[in-house]
Amino acid sequence: MTDRDVSFDPVVDEELVETVKAAADGPVFVVVEFTPDEFSVTYASSATRDMYEDEDAMYDYFESVHEYVNLDLTEIDLFTENLFPVADDVRYITTALDIGKMIRVYVGDRRGVFVGLPTEAEVEPVVEALFDESDR
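Request: output the structure for the sequence above.
Response:
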């Protein structure tokens, strides 16, 4: 493993991965737990892994994506502090691309779970399952 604030172990949190897979009721491409300072790839499907030359290339790419987590956090602050001050929190943010859906579910104080799903996937069941899991 390289000297980074990253870990990759597909069995780090099997319960979390199984929760996501059961709720998704279909393929799951990736599950990543993250904070503003670090992230952990909890699950990456073989299709996801096949997109990269090797594990280091995947780390590098995920690390570059993680560098932008502050944009989500800034947007959350914008919505809850400025635009909708009656709201206490932002539960999740979904980005729908032509290649899939990327969900960032915020389950704690600046702690989240990133989930990659196919374009046709239903988002809400995964979000609810993650919130149920975090309440345990």
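The chain has a mean pLDDT of 87.
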